[in-house]
Every structure is written in structure tokens, then in C-alpha cells.
Amino acid sequence: MPLGSTLGFSQIDPETGADLIPLRTNVMANFGHEYVWHCHILSHEENDMMRPVVLNADSLLYTDFGTGGVWKWDGLTWSQITPNNPEGMAASGSTLYGDFGTGGIWKWDGAAWSFVTASNPEGMAASGTMLYGDFGTGGLWAWDGTTWTQATPNNAVRMAAAGRLLYAVFGADGVWKWDGTTWTNINPNSAEIMAAAGLIFYGDFGTAGIWRYDGTNWSQLTTTDPAMMASAF
Asked: Which domain holds residue 76?
């Protein structure tokens, strides 16, 4: 069911039998890690058909050991995926992107390396199937696995990506969000450190501390100025 649609939901008030107003709309919401599925069918509950499901997804760690090359940790063992030393890395899921300087950007899909572009980026960010590369005076570009599209001719100072959203700081004009089509200024202040996961963005604003943005509202998490941040979903 598409976002914004009211189809598929009961439009009858269960207490009065009258039409339910306002109608319930399908929206995207972040409930943290509390639920995956939740059922309220009474017969399922009465017949003891409901069972909890625990999901513990494996995670991967990619590490550059300099002259020792790049290694992958799958939670049990280390394995070398290249003896080469990249200038930068960005990972999403089981996919790793490596910037090998004059050798360009390469993609590791968990089994083999494939060439992406000969250009050498100043910075990279990855999320889902998207790779974002800042190519200095060439601007900021997005790669969907097949095609490169210029997101902006401007040079990003720092980036953070989550889902299909990219967050960037271009200088002193604040934090900007790109949804794949349009850039929107979400904060007039420029974040010193950024992290993003799911639909949530986190920004470190120096002496103003860390702030959380949920797509609509900002809330302060702490007044402490961190040295680094990382976020996971």
C-alpha cells in the first residue's frame, strides 16, 4: 500500500460502528527496534498462535591495515579481501566501496571486486544501494549501481547517508538534506560531525552539543561536544 493512502485500513469505529473520522493514513514511522510485526487478530491470540521472533542480523567490519591490506571480520573470522591500501572506504550492508587513489573507486560485493569509476573522490558515503562521492571542483555525485548523477556542483565538506537520504555540509550555510531530487536546508548552523541511521539524523554543533532530527523536529540530546559519532539502525 503506498504511503499517504487510506486504503487497507478499517474505516469503522469499533466502539460505535460509525464511520471513523479522520481516516487512518499509511505513514512511514521509526519505532526504533521495538517491533517488526505485531498482530491484533483476536483468534490468533486466543488460540496461542502468536510467537515472538528474535532477529539477530550478522554485521560486517571492514578494516584497512595499511600495508597489510583490507580485511573483513564477519563476527567469527578475519579474511583478506585485497592486499591494497585504500585512501578511503564506505560500506553499506555487505557492500564495500574503496577509493584506491589513481586506481579509482572499486566495489566489493562480498565475493569479488568490480570497477566503479576512475575518478578519485575527496569523500564518500554509502547507504543501501547508493554511493555518494564528493569530487571536489567536480561537485557531489550519486551512483545507484548503474548510473552517476550529479547531485550538486558544490563541494561538500562532510557527508552522512541513510536510506535514500544524503546529508551534507558545504561550509557555513548549514546542514542540507538531499532526497534524490531536491536539496532542503534543515538547519542554518553547520554541524561539525554528522551521523545518520534510518530516518534519523544526528548533528554535533560544537558548544551547542548533539542534536537529533527526525525529519520534522530537532531535539537536543546533550550539551557535550563529542570527538566522534557513529549511528546504526
From this structure: 58-120
